[in-house]
């Protein structure tokens, strides 16, 4: 809905919402299909958490 409304980007919050890796991948895929740039908010400033989020984007593309 956000992509169809004309927005340029979307923030996917995995810090305050329980989002498993498969759900995150699907959200990233949905954002990219509608032309949105997805930004993922990770739960902590941990390189592992950042890498996991980046991996989900890699598989969604």
- Radius of gyration over alpha carbons? 11 Å
The count of DSSP E runs of length 2 or more, i.e. the number of strands, is 2
Tally of alpha and pi helices: 2
Range of strand content? 15-25%
How many distinct folded domains? 1
Overall shape = globular
Question: Structural class of the helices, strands and pairings?
Answer: alpha+beta
Distance between the termini: 20 Å
Low-confidence runs: none
Strand line-up in the sheet with most strands: 1-2
The biggest sheet amounts to: 2 strands, parallel
H-E string: EHEH
Helix content: 40-55%
- What's the pLDDT, averaged over the residues? 88
Explain the overall architecture.
The chain has a two-stranded parallel sheet. Strand 1 (9-13), helix 1 (21-33) and strand 2 form a beta-alpha-beta unit. The protein is α+β, with helices and mostly antiparallel strands and 61 residues long. The chain is 44% helix and 16% strand. The model has no long low-confidence stretch (mean pLDDT 88). The longest helix has 14 residues, at 47-60. The protein has one domain.
